[in-house]
Amino acid sequence: MVNMNFYPTCPNPELTVGVGRHSDMGALTVLLQDGIGGLFVKSEDGDDAGKWMEIPPVPAALVINVGDTLQILSNGRYRSAEHRVRTTNTQARVSIPIFTLPKPTEKIGPLPEAVEKDGVALYKEIVFQDYMNNFFGNVHDGKKSLDFARIN
Ligand SMILES: O=C(O)CCC(=O)C(=O)O
Ligand SMILES: [Fe+2]
After folding, report:
1. Higher pLDDT residue, 152 or 130?
2. Predicted local distance difference test score (pLDDT) of residue 19
């Protein structure tokens, strides 16, 4: 699925959310952003854990995001990237993400090889349509979308 995102200039960016913090649903996202900047990713590890880092636009470069589907399939080995977008009061912004998504009818769960290695499945098998319904049925709240598939 291809999206085309347009972020108009915003008189008060501090009070506005461009795109709220979330992780993408699919396996991988291939993202083309223009030269304005404003995409931030939350670091999960090391000294920077919990900090938001800007992903500066690099001419002719694509950003590749790991999404929730890959986190589930890999039983947590690959972790989806929590990200958000900030607007500015001077320049409009455009981005074009391509989401690689399972078919809505497809069942998604941790791959057996990963579960065998880990000795435990961290996620249950879900029908992707149900995952999407939950994703779009709730306000973006970081990586909360993954709770839908998580085994407690
Ligand atoms: O505009 C961007 O750089 C990212 C947009 C985004 O996160 C999304 O469409 O899922
Ligand atoms: Fe996204």
Report:
1. 130
2. 81
Which CATH class, in words, describes the domain spanning 5-148? Answer: mainly beta
CA distance 109 to 121: 9
53 phi, psi to nearest 5 deg: -120, 135
Give distance in angstroms: CA of 84 to centre of ligand 1.
7
For residue 41 and ligand 1, the question of a CB distance below 6 A is answered with no
Nearest CA to ligand 1 atom 9: 97
Contacts of 95 (CB under 8 A, 6+ apart): 5, 7, 31, 32, 33, 34, 39, 85
Asked casually if ipTM beats, i.e. exceeds, 0.90, the reply is yes
**Helices H / strands E in the chain, number of each:** 3, 10
Q: What is the pTM of this model?
A: 0.93
pLDDT of residue 17: 66
Give the separation between CA 7 and CA 121, rounded to whole angstroms. 39
**Residue 148 in 3-state DSSP?**
helix
Between the two ends of the chain, the Cα-to-Cα distance in Å is 31
Q: Where are the alpha helices (DSSP H) in 45-100?
A: 68-73
